[in-house]
Write a structure and sequence with these properties.
177 residues, OB fold (Dihydrolipoamide Acetyltransferase, E2P), alpha+beta, 49% helix
Length: 177
């Protein structure tokens, strides 16, 4: 049984180290289990974080329980793995949801700001604009507030709305007309 504990601990640690070195590779899976109130249900067992931390703590608790001579090492390590995996999954979900809320509130603060188109905004398609906010240059996705209009590269625009992570803009010259 000790070999299983060691293997679980090493697999959990190896995946964690790989994730740190390679970057946060689990966003694609976690987006579907975010439970953000729009009909999605949070299922922690689908989260890579649950498995990484759960396996690692299961293995470590199993190794330590065996070394300590605890007769029910399998039960202790299983409970420890479940608690750790669930705790990390829910804590991360809470932190990410809070960061997402803060991000959308920052998007609203861009209303009325002016910027320039860096990627042309075509009919019914998204382009990009560049603007300055609190001394920081931002390049954000944007679409025309009039879906039939086209805004070319370099045109000065004003942010007139926010839709998710996309800004609604109109040419600054249209305000003066």
């Amino acid at each position: 049984m000790v070999a299983i504990y060691i293997a679980a601990f090493l697999v959990g640690i190896a995946i964690l180290v790989f994730g740190i070195v390679a970057g946060n590779f689990d966003h694609a899976v976690d987006t579907q289990d975010s439970g953000d109130g729009d009909g999605h249900v949070f299922i922690p067992f689908l989260s890579p974080r649950f498995w990484i931390y759960g396996l690692g703590s299961f293995g470590l608790a199993g190794i330590l329980s065996t070394l300590a001579g605890i007769p029910s090492a399998l039960i202790v390590s299983t409970i420890c793995g479940l608690i750790t995996g669930l705790s990390i999954s829910y804590f991360t979900k809470f932190v990410l949801r809070r960061a997402e809320t803060t991000s959308s509130m920052r998007m609203d603060s861009l209303l009325g700001k002016t910027g320039n188109v860096t990627v042309p905004i075509r009919q019914d398609s998204i382009g990009k604009i560049q603007l300055s906010q609190q001394g920081e240059v931002l390049e954000l996705f944007a679409k025309a507030n009039n879906p039939d209009s086209e805004i070319l590269h370099g045109v000065a625009v004003v942010v007139v709305g926010v839709e998710g992570n996309t800004l609604e803009v109109m040419p600054q010259d249209n305000l003066l007309d």
